[in-house]
Specification:
Oligomer: single chain
Radius of gyration: 13 Å
Number of helices: 2
Largest sheet: none
Length: 57
């Protein structure tokens, strides 16, 4: 299950980067902000999983 969470975190980060880049390319500030928010959620999810792994060992 942890692998699924890690994969989901990476996917969310990648999706956020794409959204942010697209928003910048077309000058859409809202899309850029949504992309940053997706990346932040992915970062938080990844950090949570890393913390879980640290306490397992």
């Amino acid at each position: 299950m942890a692998a699924d969470e890690k994969t989901q975190a990476k996917t969310e980060q990648a999706k956020g980067k794409v959204k942010e880049a697209a928003g910048r390319a077309v000058g859409n500030e809202r899309l850029t902000a949504e992309g940053r928010a997706d990346q932040t959620r992915g970062d938080a999810r990844e950090a949570k999983e890393k913390a879980k792994d640290a306490f397992k060992h």
